[in-house]
């Protein structure tokens, strides 16, 4: 597996408000709050200290800004709770090494495991082993092959990223006859890339005046973004909008755009890098928005793991148990709301 493939197996589409905010903004269990008596009996997760929970956290090597932010989000979230102890493994993109690290956590008998596997398929068996040992697993981002390998999956919406990017561009260009858009995709053999493209294509169907005239796959790197964007610019002398799947490769794409002296189109990015937020806020170039794939999902995974360990549910939901699946919304961040998300931007 290449470094880039291990980086994102099933990338997480972003949330307009992080799932963590939903999970921890909880209803009170205090009957004095005047709430419904039935609701008062609901053991919802909240910020009040409860049963001590030891969470084992295993992620891949932070060889990319997004993954580094994921690790930071998980660790910082755990520090928020006085009743949470976090056992963190040294990140690895080697599946055998990561399996060994998780086995160590199982042997330590942690209460809950949060696992972002380097390869979901390859680590399915260790997820099953943990579940069979009575340790519930929160599967983060790259999904295991079997739902029996996790109690809850938390991840993003790649199709939704493409869909919302298309909607944003479509609304900007809906009154322009014969509008043209191009797409700078990610690694083509990854399912997440295919899902983002499918969402984008389906979204554009709502705007019959818009035609996608070119698509080029890059590799989620600055260098590939620059070289592939330069090729697109050379081949397309005129177009109205660009959707770039990834803000990291977008750094390179913006370099190519600047070198070509082009400013005759709008650009929408993907993921939620700090550099993208800053460019959107400055509003001095072509980048006008980005569609999130938020690293805050890791903070939400800690919230869910804590709730699992304490036998609680999720605020805002009537069920006594946490959901089996949490898919984050792929919010669009533009100049109007960028300040709200600035603190979540990754470097």
- How confident overall, as mean pLDDT? 88
- Quickly count the helices: 13
CA-CA gap between termini? 24 Å
Q: What is the CATH domain class of the largest domain? A: Alpha Beta
What number of domains? 2
Order of helices and strands: HHHEHEHEHEEHEHEHEHEHEHEEH
Shape: elongated
Supply the CATH architecture of the largest domain: 3-Layer(aba) Sandwich
Low-confidence stretches: 1-42
Portion in strands: 15-25%
The CATH topology of the largest domain comes to Rossmann fold
Q: For the largest beta sheet, what order do the strands appear in spatially?
A: 2-1-3-4-5-11
Number of strands: 12
**CATH superfamily assignment of the largest domain?**
Response regulator
Helix fraction bin:
25-40%
**Largest sheet descriptor:** 6 strands, parallel
Cα radius of gyration in angstroms: 21 Å
Structural class: alpha/beta
Question: Descriptors for this entry?
Answer:
alpha/beta, Rossmann fold, 12 strands
């Amino acid at each position: 597996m290449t470094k880039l493939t291990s980086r994102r197996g099933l990338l997480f589409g972003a949330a307009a408000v992080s799932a963590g905010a939903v999970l921890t903004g909880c209803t009170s269990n205090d009957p004095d709050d005047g709430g419904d008596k039935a609701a008062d009996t609901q053991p919802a997760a909240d910020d009040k200290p409860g049963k001590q929970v030891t969470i084992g956290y295993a992620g891949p090597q932070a060889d990319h800004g997004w993954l580094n932010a994921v690790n930071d989000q998980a660790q910082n979230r755990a520090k928020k709770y006085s009743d949470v102890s976090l056992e963190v493994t040294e990140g690895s993109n080697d599946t055998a090494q990561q399996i060994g690290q998780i086995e160590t956590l199982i042997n330590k008998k942690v209460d809950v495991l949060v696992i972002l596997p380097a390869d979901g398929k390859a680590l399915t068996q260790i997820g099953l082993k943990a579940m069979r040992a009575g340790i519930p697993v929160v599967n983060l981002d790259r999904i295991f092959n079997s739902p029996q390998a996790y109690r809850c999956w938390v991840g993003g919406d790649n199709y939704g990223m493409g869909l919302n990017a298309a909607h944003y561009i479509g609304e900007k260009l809906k009154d322009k006859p014969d509008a043209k858009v191009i797409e700078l995709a990610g690694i083509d053999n990854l399912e997440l890339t295919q899902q983002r493209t499918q969402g984008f294509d389906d979204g554009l169907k709502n705007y019959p005046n818009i035609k996608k005239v070119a698509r080029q796959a890059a590799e989620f790197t600055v260098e590939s973004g620059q070289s592939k964007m330069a090729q697109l610019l050379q081949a397309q002398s005129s177009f109205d909008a660009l959707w770039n799947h990834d803000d990291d490769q977008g750094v390179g794409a913006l370099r190519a755009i600047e070198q070509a002296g082009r400013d005759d189109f709008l650009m929408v990015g993907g993921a939620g890098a700090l550099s993208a937020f800053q460019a959107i806020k400055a509003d001095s170039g072509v980048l006008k928005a980005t569609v999130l794939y938020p690293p805050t999902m890791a903070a939400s995974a800690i919230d869910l793991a804590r709730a699992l360990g304490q036998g609680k549910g999720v605020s805002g939901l009537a069920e006594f148990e946490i959901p089996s699946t949490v898919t984050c919304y792929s919010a669009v961040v533009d100049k109007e709301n960028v300040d709200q998300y600035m603190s979540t931007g990754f470097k």
